[in-house]
Design a protein that fits this description.
Distance between the termini: 46 Å
Radius of gyration: 19 Å
Strand content: 5-15%
Structural class: alpha/beta
Order of helices and strands: EHEEHEHEHEHEHEHEHHHH
Helix content: 40-55%
Number of strands: 9
CATH superfamily of one domain: NAD(P)-binding Rossmann-like Domain
InterPro entries: Ergot_Alk_Oxidoreductase (IPR051604), NAD(P)-bd_dom_sf (IPR036291), NmrA-like (IPR008030)
Length: 295
């Protein structure tokens, strides 16, 4: 019988990308989360990370697990989730924790950063064989409906200063990096910054979109307050405020460089070929436009 891989958060965009990659590689995949909407082929266990019994049931018979925690930044709640995972993961061969964001070197006072920092420390000190992946922001954010609407009008808005160089990562590449990490005994106990093939500034990002789409696109640096106001109806007020706080921190001088990356190092370390920026735009924006999408 083949190994069973548990993907916590398989109903979300990041966990879903991991589940799709594992399925593509021929693995048995069990998904766990509040929602069972996700990739076809996943065996679902519905539950909440706050419920120890549900988490134990999800881990039953599992050899390896990918963890993407919910977008919740209250320290005590995140700690409960991590504690329940660690308690249920006894005997696990490998756990790969995706932080969903980079983590600044020094403590910031920003709950969305610090809850992830605490989770990393808890997993790495738990005795469960763990590898931590710390991505920057995702290219797939730029395919969201709000981004598509702006692109249709010649703008590419994002709540990062235009001069920040960002190694935007594709969800598909996150899936590939996670799958590769499962087989890397030598990386156990480490936390690794991962990112995409191309690290670009805001104007360079817009220029890549303009080149592929064949029309002018201008990058617009959105203020974090505006982002919070616009995202609150989508994410909920608490989550939108927590995420906006990260962008407020990133807009300050100490935020420069947090989202940069060394693609050659990541590719060599994991044996994964990262998706070039223009290729991602061709596949995810231009192709859908040609098929009659908004763009």
């Amino acid at each position: 019988m083949s190994d069973t891989y548990l993907v916590i958060g398989a109903g979300g965009t990041q966990g879903g990308a991991v589940a799709r990659r594992l399925l593509r590689d021929g693995h048995r995949v069990r998904g766990f989360g509040r929602s069972t909407a996700g990739p076809s082929g996943v065996d679902w266990v519905r539950g909440d990370l706050a419920d120890p019994a549900a988490v134990r049931a999800a881990f039953d018979g599992v050899t390896r697990a990918s963890v993407t925690l919910p977008m919740e930044f209250e320290p005590a709640a995140v700690a409960r989730h991590v504690d329940n995972i660690v308690a249920a993961a006894d005997g696990l061969e490998r756990l790969v924790y995706n932080t969903g964001n980079r983590i600044p070197v020094a403590r910031t006072g920003v709950a969305a950063f610090e809850s992830k920092r605490d989770a990393v420390e808890a997993f790495l000190s738990s005795g469960v064989p763990t590898i931590v992946l710390r991505p920057p922001v995702y290219l797939d954010n730029l395919a969201a409906p709000w981004a598509r609407a702006a692109l249709a009008n010649g703008f590419l808005p994002y709540p990062l200063p235009e001069g920040h160089r960002v190694a935007w990562l594709a969800h598909d590449d996150l899936g590939a990096l996670t799958a590769a990490a499962f087989d890397r005994d030598d990386l156990t106990g480490t936390a690794i910054d991962v990112g995409g093939r191309d690290a670009v500034t805001g104007p360079e990002l817009a220029a890549a979109f303009a080149s592929v789409l064949g029309r002018e696109i201008r990058y617009v640096s959105v203020h974090a307050d505006t982002y919070e106001e616009e995202m609150a109806p989508v994410l909920g007020a608490a989550v939108a405020a927590g995420v906006a706080d990260t962008y407020r921190w990133l807009a300050a001088p100490e935020g420069i460089g947090l989202y940069e990356g060394d693609a050659d190092k990541v590719e060599a370390l994991f044996g994964v070929e990262l998706t070039p920026l223009r290729t991602w735009i061709e596949r995810n924006i231009r192709t859908e436009r040609n098929a009659g999408a908004m763009l």
